[in-house]
Amino acid sequence: MGRASVTRRSWRALVVAAAALLMSPFGMVSAQSVSSPPDPVRSTNDVADTAVARADCGPGSTPETGLQGDVPAADRDSGRSAAGYRCNLERLGGYAGRGGGITSTSYDHCAYMGSFFPGNLLGPAQGVQVLDVSDPANPVLTATLTEPAMLAGTWESLKVNAARKLLMGMGVPALTGAGLLSVYDISDCAHPRLLNTGPGSDLRLPLPITSHEGGFSPDGNTYWASGTAPGIVSAVDLTDPANPRVVWQGLPGLSMHGIGVSPDGNRVYLSNILGGITVLDASAVQRRDPDPQVPVVAELHWSDGWATQHSVPVSYGDRPYLFTVDEAGSGGVKLVDVADDAAPKVVNSIKLEVNLPQHQDSMLASASGGSLFAYDSHYCAADRPVDPTALACGWISSGIRVFDVRDPFDVREIAYYNPPAKKGQNTELWNSPHALASIIGVPVLEAGAVTQAIQQGVFDPAEALSPRSGMVAFGDLSTDWCFSPPEWRGNELWVTCADNGFMTLRLDPSTYTPPADQRSTVGS
Predict the structure, then answer these.
(1) Residue 57 bridge partners (DSSP)
(2) In this model, does residue 118 exceed pLDDT 70?
(3) Which of 496, 505, 514 is nearest to 88 (CA)?
(4) Interatomic CA distance for residues 19 and 15, integer angstroms
(5) Which stretch of DSSP H or E encloses residue 91?
(6) Is the dihedral angle over the CA atoms 132, 135, 139, 141 positive or is it negative?
(7) What are the backbone angles phi and psi of residue 329, rounded to the nearest 5°?
(8) Cβ pair 95, 431 in contact under 8 A
(9) What per-residue confidence (pLDDT) applies to 24?
(10) Which of 226, 327, 410, 477 is deepest in the core (most CB within 10 A)?
(11) Cβ atoms within 10 Å of 355's Cβ, excluding its own
(12) DSSP H helical segments within 152-292, as ranges?
C-alpha cells in the first residue's frame, strides 16, 4: 500500500477521534472509522466537452436567446430574464410564499416546501409549508410544520418515503446542523402528524447526528443522515418512527454530501464534496445486525465538477447505473456504471452548452453579479427506476431541464422551463437562499471549471468580460435558483425554485408520453 493511502487512513482516524471527542458532551454515539479493502480508490481526470442535443421547441415556446442553459448578460440587464424562458414546458400554477428554501418534496396530492434559516422565521408562514395541490393550477396552503428541525432550516434533508407514508427532515441552520430531526405521518398528506414527539423534536432530547442532507432506504426503515464538515454519516432506524435511533455512525470521508440507495438497501452511494462517490456496503444495517459494520466497497473521484450532490440508482435491462449529479464546477450529470460496485466507472455525461470548458468564458460574463452559483445541476428525478425514459433536473440558474434518457448513451434535451427572474425583490423573499446569498456577486463555485478551461487553453479573457463583471458584491436576482428535483406526475412536473416557490409545470404531450409504470425516483 502506498504512502498516500496510509496518510489518508491515518488522517481519517485522527478526524474520527476528534469528531467523537467533540460530540461526546452532547450524548452523540462515537463515530466509527469505516473499513475498506486495499486500494479501493479510482479516479478519472476526463472533462466532458460535448453537450446534449438541444430541444426542438414547439409552438408557443419562448426559447433561450443564447447558449443552451445560458441567461446572457444582456437579458439580465435589460429585464428580458424577468419573463423567463420555456420550451415544450408551461406553467400551470404555483404558490410562491416567501421563497422555496433549498430542496422540497411531494407526496400524493401534496407538496412540502423546504425552509431556510433564518429567513423562514420572519413568516408569515414559518417552517415547512404544506400545500394541497389537488388543483394543480391553484395550490393551497393547508398547514405549516414548526417543530425545531423545521424552523432551523431543512437544507437538503426534507424527503418522503411513499412506501411508509413518512415525511422527514433535519434541522440545518448553517450548512451543518446537529441533533434535530422530525418524522411525520402523511397518510393525510395535507395535514402531517408528528410521530417523534421526543428524541429529535424535543430540544432537550437531541439525536446523535450531524445534518446537512439525507435520504431514505427504499423500504423506509432507515434514514441516512450526512453532515458536510465533518462528513459524519448516521444510519437512523425508523422501524418505530416515533422513536428514531442511530444504529450506525461512521466517517467514510472528510466531507460527505447527498446519497442514493440501491433498490435492495444494501448499497449506499455517498457523494463526496470534492467530486465523486463512495460506495458503502450497508447490508449489515439493512439486516439490523447487532453491531453492524459498513465497509467501503469503492471510491471513485473525478475532477470534472465537484460538490457531488446525489445519485439516482436506475437500471437498463439487468445492468445497474447511477445518474450522479455535481452541484458545482459545471460537472453536469454523470452516468456511472455500478454493475461491478467495487469498480464503478463514468460512462457518459449530461451537460448543457454553457457547462462546456470552451464556454466557461461566456458563463463568467453572464453569471457575474448573480451570486455564488451559475449554471449547475443540483437534484434530478427519473420517471421510473427501471428503464427510465426521461430525467428531469433542477439546473440552478438554467431552470428545469428535461432529457430523453431512453438510450442513456444518446441523451437529448426535450424541454426546459427557466422561471421569471425576481429581480429587485430580495427583501420580499425571506425563505429564499438565493436572496440571502446575493450579497456575493461572483460565481465563486465555478472557479475550478474556469481554471480547467484556462489550463486547456480554451478560455478567452475578453469573452469573460461584460457590463456585469464589476458586480463582486450585492448581486441581483436576474435568474432564479432551481435546486429541487422536479417530481413526475404524468405529464406534469411539480418543483420548487428558490425565488418562485412551488410550481406545477406541464409537458407538451407531443414531447413526452408517460410510461404506464411511471414512478418518480430521486434515489433516496
Answers:
(1) none
(2) yes
(3) 505
(4) 6
(5) strand 89-95
(6) negative
(7) 75, 20
(8) no
(9) 38
(10) 226
(11) 33
(12) 283-287
Mean pLDDT of 363-376: 96
- Torsion, CA 43, CA 353, CA 90, CA 105, rounded to 10: 20
157-187 b/e with 16+ CB inside 10 Å = b? Answer: bbbbbeebbbbbbbbbbeebbbbbbbbbbbe
d(CA 489, CA 130): 18
- What letter represents residue 182's amino acid? S
Rg of the Cα atoms in the chain: 21
- The predicted model gives 186-202 an average pLDDT of 98
Grid cell digits, residue 54:
438541444
Paired with 250 in beta bridges are 32, 233
Output the pLDDT for position 40.
74
Query: pTM (2 decimals)?
Result: 0.93
Q: Which of 58, 69, 91 is nearest to 511 (CA)?
A: 58
Give the rounded distance of the alpha carbon of 445 from its chain centre: 15
Residue type at position 483:
F
- Residue 321: which of 278, 269, 376, 390 has the closest Cα? 269
pLDDT band at 39 (very low <50, low <70, confident <90, very high): low
Tens-place pLDDT, residues 424-466: 999 999 999 999 999 999 999 999 999 999 999 999 999 999 9
Written as nine digits, the cell of 128 is 415547512
Burial call 193-228: b when 16+ CB within 10 Å, e when fewer: ebbbeebbbeeeebbbbbbbbbbbbbebbbbbbbbb
Q: Are strands 296-302 and 41-44 parallel, antiparallel or unpaired?
A: parallel
Determine if the peptide bond prior to 515 is cis (ω within 30°).
no
For residues 498 and 378, the answer to whether their CB atoms sit within 8 Å is no
- Cell for 77? 440587464
Question: pLDDT averaged over the chain?
Answer: 92
Short-list 341, 401, 345, 402, CA closest to 376 = 401
Residue 9's pLDDT band, with cuts at 50, 70 and 90, is very low
CA distance 200 to 198: 6
Could you tell me the three cell numbers for 75?
A: 437579458
- The helix (run of H) or strand (run of E) holding residue 367 is helix 360-367
